[in-house]
Amino acid sequence: MLKNTGINILGISCFYHDSAACLVRDGEIVCAAQEERFTRRKHDSGFPANAVSFCLKDAGICADDLELVAFYDKPFLKFERILETSLSYAPAGITQFIAAIPPWLKQKLWVTETIRSSLSYKGKVIFPSHHESHAASAFYPSPFERAAFLTVDGAGEWDTAAFGTGQGNKLDIRQSLRFPNSLGLLYSAFTYYTGFKVNSGEYKLMGLAPYGSPVYKDIILKELIDLKKDGSFRINMDYFSFCSGMRMTNRRFDRLFGAPPRKPEGEITMKYMDVASSIQAATEEIILKMASYVREDTGEDKLCLAGGVALNCVANGRILRSGLFSDIWVQPASGDAGGAMGAALLAWHKYLGRDRSCGKGGDTQKSSLLGPFYRDDYIESFLKSEGVPYRKLDQDGVADKVAGLVSSGMVVGWFQGRMEFGPRALGARSIIADARSPGMQEKLNLKIKFRESFRPFAPSVLGEKVSEWFDLDRDSPYMLLVADVKKEKRLDENKEYSGLDKLKAARSLVPAVTHVDYSSRVQTVRREDNPLYYDMIMSFYRETGCPMVINTSFNVRGEPLVLSPEDAYRCFRNTQMDYLMLGNFLLDKKEQPFPAAAPHAAEKRSGCSGGREWIN
Q: How deeply is 34 buried, as exposed, middle or buried, from its count of CB atoms within 10 A (0-12, 13-18, 19+)?
């Protein structure tokens, strides 16, 4: 808990998805958390009462100590878009309109009143625009004194993408794209079509793409959108229903691709793999055109990214390798959760006009380790109260012990320090394992994560060793860049297989973190950012000669990242994880007073017009 000094600003995002709160003091990010972690409802969209309570408590303040509360978008403008869209598509849009209006009239239009009553707050509430909040979350924490920014998502009020420049404390949006012309919604439509959940399964679509071929890319670019050289586009709404119904796509879309949408949990055939590959390829082309235009229009050689589409780490890697910019920085919480942070920072720098200081040698996001933490005395009290067998280790012995377990083929739950802000586990709430093991991807997916077999895993690699194993010449601390495995580390077995059979190939010396296209979603780890996690990987490296471990989020399918020791123990108990490192306390599955986790059900599954559209 911090001492109450300085000017405190609370940022809030909610009522769409991924509600969150962030506390900024004198321009410094103090803490941030997503509501889902507290309620255990993934992508919780409700008012973030628990996240707000945590932020205030962690900062050592109450609501009376807040100078400002900043909400991440303008509700009345968003409501205007919904009304106008419904009228434009009447009578077809009446079902969607009837479903949308009640929550708006009951809750979403009364944000100020909700904030005041929930917090007992009497001060000022400000409302930056949605993409302005995204832009602020991208530029202000970045390590750049000046840069261009690009924000791309589903939709804010009317905007679906925006770009501009930041310099010092100044932030200016130059142009934007308007609803319904949305790359985020286009990608979500294909998420729906391939049988995954919209606003949740987009990363599954990205993970499925390398198993197919982009045979439908030309159809997408010819029939579904009218793409311009500057990256702006028009969507052909004849194929989509998100403006007029409760589906993302319609029967005309089905006929275009020769099949109906895949049923959730249904078989993933080559057809849907090819569709996934095609929309991913089209998305990358659109993003690269956007980035090229941003470079040309702004003249800036550094780029900051935010918005839900910025979580597409494959596209991010393409931007970096294109050479358009000398460097890029991506907001780790690029979705709506990060809007809370952006709103708070915008209030400090733009609304109050306060100066900005860049991080010395890095960003000011504090490795995104901004959430709750639990002291060892709390953890031990919990373990004793539950009668849980454990062994307490000295702090100095944790890294070596866990490294030894991982090198012997064990899967270890790793619960240390402050929880991550954003969707990625970054070495605080992680499940770790040996990246060298050919069977580890299948084991983790089916017996621990209970999810589709094709889902890839990421490596946490020592920062100083990353260039020896991957085609990456810089840090990637937030797991938001994809890079290829070095050719000398690859194996050729992958050529013998197609489709999901590619999972049978080892592919590289670290097969568990090498995707079927020989790429990997890399997280680099520096000791100054996360000392204990770094020391564990270094110990593993000394023992094995491999400078990386698998890092996947500490949760099972359908649940958010674990928050507390109680959450971590429950996840450990209900999976086939071998060990749990809970602070300084080591739990061995074989010693626990419950039967081994039963096989999960998931184990049984098989897996338009001319001109440019940027708006000034």
A: buried
Instruction: Return averaged pLDDT per consecutive 10 residues of the chain, 616 residues in all.
Output: 75 94 98 98 96 97 97 91 77 68 78 94 96 98 97 95 97 96 96 93 92 96 97 96 82 96 92 97 98 98 97 95 97 97 98 88 93 97 96 96 97 98 97 92 79 80 97 95 95 67 78 92 97 98 98 92 97 94 97 64 34 42
Task: Give the separation between CA 581 and CA 569, rounded to whole angstroms.
Answer: 10
Beta bridge partners of 582: 415, 585
Q: CB atoms < 10 A from the CB of 488, how many?
A: 9
User: 321: part of which helix (H) or strand (E)?
Assistant: helix 313-322
- Mapped onto helix, strand or coil, the DSSP state of residue 470 is strand
Task: Using alpha carbons, list the distances in angstroms from residue 127 to 51, 234, 342.
Answer: 19, 29, 11
Report how far residue 477's alpha carbon sits from residue 522's, in angstroms, rounded to the nearest whole number. 8
Output the six-digit token pair for 247: 């589906």
Architecture of domain 376-602: Alpha-Beta Complex (3.90)
The Cα 442–Cα 603 span in angstroms is 10
- Beta-carbon contacts of residue 65 (< 8 Å; ≥ 6 apart): 4, 8
* Dist. CA 254–CA 257, nearest whole Å: 5
Where do the domains of the chain lie?
8-142+331-368, 183-291, 376-602
- What predicted TM-score, i.e. pTM, was given to this entire model? 0.92
Q: For residues 121 and 113, what is the distance between their CA atoms, to the nearest angstrom?
A: 10
CA dist list (Å): 445 to 242, 410, 515, 557, 608:
32, 15, 14, 9, 42
Residue carrying structure tokens 């020391």: 535
For the chain, how are helix, strand and coil distributed in percent, rounded to 5? 40, 20, 40
Q: Quick one: CA torsion of 451, 457, 460, 466, rounded to 10 degrees?
A: -170
Backbone angles phi and psi of 605, in degrees to 5: -95, 150
Q: Which CATH number fits the domain 8-142+331-368, given the four candidates 3.30.2000.10, 3.40.640.10, 3.30.1490.270, 3.30.420.40?
A: 3.30.420.40
CA distance readout (Å), 312 to 114, 334, 521: 33, 10, 10
Q: Residue 496, class by beta-carbon neighbours within 10 Å (0-12 exposed, 13-18 middle, 19+ buried)?
A: exposed
Q: Would you say 171 and 164 are in contact if contact means Cβ atoms under 8 Å apart? A: yes
